[in-house]
Amino acid sequence: MGRGDLDRRRVPAVDGVRGADRRRLAQPRRVEALRPARRDRGRRHQVPRVEAAARARRGARERRRSADGAGARVGGRGTRARSRSAAGVERRARVVPVAALARAVDRRQPRRRPGRLRALPPRRDEVPVVPREPRRPRRGGSQQRARPADRARAQVHRPLPALPDPAMIHAFALLAFAATLSPTPTPTFAPSQPRPSNPAALERALATISADEIRSDLFFIASDELAGRDTPSPGQRIAARFLRARLQRLGFEPGDEGKDFLYEYTVPRKRIDEAGTTLAAKHGETQLSFAYGKDWSFYTSQDLEDRAIDAPIVWAGSGLDADLEAAKPSGKWIACRDGKGSTGKRRRAAQEAGALGVLVLQERKGTIAPVDERFADILRSLREGSISGPAREPAKDGAPRASVPCAFLAASSATALLSAQAGKPVDADYEPALGAELGSLALSSKLADKNGGLELENVVGFWPGSDPELAKEVVILSAHYDHVGTRRDVVYNGADDNGSGTSTLLAVAEALSQYGPLRRSVLIIWVSGEEKGLWGSRAFASAPWFPSGARAVADINIDMVGRNAPDKLLVTPTDKHEKFNGLTRIAERLAVEEGFPKLGSADSFYSRSDHIEFARLGIPIVFLFSDVHDDYHQPGDDPEKIDCDKVARVARLVTRMLDELQGDKLEL
Predict the structure, then answer these.
(1) Can you give the pLDDT at residue 270?
(2) Residue 537 main-chain phi, psi, to 5 deg
(3) How far apart are alpha carbons 668 and 666 in whole angstroms?
(4) In this predicted structure, what is the pLDDT of residue 582?
(5) For domain 274-445, which architecture applies?
(6) How many whole angstroms from its chain centre is CA 626?
């Protein structure tokens, strides 16, 4: 059905008016009442229509009156009936649908479909749309084209605004009135999710992350053939070359100066000269000599250096906080009890307080293990040749800074030392007053081989950014790929620690190859020696490799993310931590999309993984971690127990975070 047919159907026939005049008859009265008078909109061309319609109405009324008069003169019931019928037609002619009236005034507007909103009127600065003149039927049924005058008028015509539907106006008025009668509740909004930087690329990247692919990588990394990936070991080196091959296949650039994807660093190999290593104490006339390996031992291989220290020794209780301050340890040895604090903390606190060394006395309470049993691994490694990690901080002259030595004294030797101070026999639980002098302590230690060293490697891949400026900002993704190796011929596979984190970065690398270049650069680094004391991350942080002019702006570290509940994931630093930053906020917001409704706190692990080395450089970090379990550092940490779907969701989370970090300005 055409447009003209619709108009003929809706506008009733009126005696004496035909064709276009009949359609115009329905136009003016109601439409003119709804439309405000606007003299500045160039509608002078509508005046002839309105006047013609008015003349048509007047003529129709005159013809009806003359017809009614003629009928009355003839007389009869039928005449009055016909008069009533004509009056009804006139009344119906006035009740025309608003949509039809709007089209009658502005025939360029298409018929509105049910359920669709009317188009907004054009702005004043828009170019007027030249309307298409509707075809009008001839009286004889054929059609004629618009006259040139009509077409000329159409060239200057501006579209009229769509008329509001009275029913909709009435409904909105009722809603507005009802809103004033009830108190306005406080609105609650779900947190808005920022749109991805590149939605299509992100979807491609996420589609590549598969639990099956992760399982395949994990079963190789945590296989018995790699023998626990101890640093250094053949299994660790095989794992490094496996990771390098994957980066090469995916199109990454080497992330090292040697352009081989292997960032090499050297750790010294230490072997003790037992004949030249002695420990002796003197209090008054009492002199005590302690045998290495039987009466005492170094705590770690880092304590072994070529040095000689002969200084007073004072009692410092726990060796921490107020006890240490009361002992006034500057320039002295401190003696403290075993089991009253972390040895690492006591060592750092003593060094900051100016102490020269720490002597830890074994106490009788609890289990008493002989020195040669408790420190069997340290004794063996120092006798065979121990590997010590790289120094963390250089001294002022540029040489590596040696930490203060920490020695452990067996219970029997500790009793002899305390008895000499008390001037009478005491047991090993005796505690002198804080700051009491125990005499002097002389340590002499020597290395048998001073020139030995071992080359180790991290695996580093670089994914350059596409933005000329933002590409100089590098986001680091880190995970350690080593574990503890074997113990007493039992393989510790380390599937969760940290085969899960290693596999996560492999999945993210695959996703980046499908995403394409991001605006910022990404550096993926698998570090070795984490289980030895963060060796690999410390070496890289002390001498990082980046392209010329580039700098690190963030580090996302992944460690142990494959066990415990499927929706359990921890993060540090949280908002309770002094180093809380924007990376954690991003992780918490995006984790919901991957089935982690609320991230728990891993603040107690803030200094226990590789991210801490980057944090010490002032780089914002976030650490993703799913907590320890019964198989932590046990032979039972096998790949069959890993939730690979969970690992895949962590990889997807990291990929989403990378996409989120591509804005113009990074505020973390």
Answers:
(1) 84
(2) -70, -35
(3) 6
(4) 96
(5) 3-Layer(bba) Sandwich (3.50)
(6) 16
Distance CA 508, CA 501 (A): 11
The percentage of residues in the chain with a pLDDT greater than 70, rounded to a whole number, is 69
Q: Tens digit of pLDDT for each residue in 392-409?
A: 554 444 444 557 999 999
SS3 track for 384-431: HCEECCCCCCECCCCCECCCCCEEEECHHHHHHHHHHHHCCCCCCCCC
Alpha carbons 228 and 491: distance in angstroms, whole number: 6
β-pair type (406-409, 357-361): parallel
Question: Rounded CA gap, 393 and 401, in Å?
Answer: 6
Task: Answer yes or no: is pLDDT of 367 > 60.
Answer: no
Task: Classify burial at 83, counting beta carbons within 10 Å of its beta carbon; exposed 0-12, middle 13-18, buried 19 or more.
Answer: middle
| Best CA proximity match to 262, nearest among 392, 455, 454, 548 | 455
Amino acid at 461: G
Q: Where are the domains of the chain?
A: 3-169, 199-265+453-660, 274-445
- Cβ atoms of 503 and 214 within 8 Å: the answer is yes
Quote the CA–CA distance of 122 and 104 in Å, as a whole number: 20
Of 291-295, 478-482, 522-526, 641-645, the least confident: 291-295
Q: Which ranges constitute the DSSP H helices of 449-568?
A: 501-515, 530-533, 535-542
The alpha helices in 461-534, defined as continuous H runs, are 501-515, 530-533
Residues contacting residue 350 through CB under 8 Å, at least 6 positions apart: 319, 324, 329, 334, 357, 358, 404
pLDDT tens, position by position, 164-182: 555 555 555 555 555 444 4
Q: Is 609 helix (H, G, I), strand (E, B) or coil?
A: coil
Q: Is the predicted pLDDT of residue 613 greater than 70, yes or no?
A: yes
For residue 511, with 0-12 CB atoms within 10 Å meaning exposed, 13-18 middle and 19 or more buried, which class applies? buried
Give CATH for domain 199-265+453-660: 3.40.630.10
Residue 142 pLDDT greater than 60, yes or no? no
> What tokens were used for 427?
């047991």
* CA-based torsion, 143, 145, 150, 151: positive or negative: positive
Q: What is the DSSP letter of 300?
A: S
Cα–Cα distance between 139 and 568 in angstroms, integer?
81
Rank 149-153, 285-289, 315-319, 509-513 by mean pLDDT and report only the highest. Answer: 509-513
Nearest to 652 by CA among 276, 215, 304, 206: 206
Q: What does the pLDDT read at residue 338?
A: 84
Angle between helices 501-515 and 234-250 (to 10 degrees): 10
The count of C-alpha atoms lying within 13 angstroms of the C-alpha of 293, restricted to the half-sphere facing its C-beta, is 12
What is the rounded distance in angstroms from the CA atom of residue 553 to the CA atom of residue 425? 60
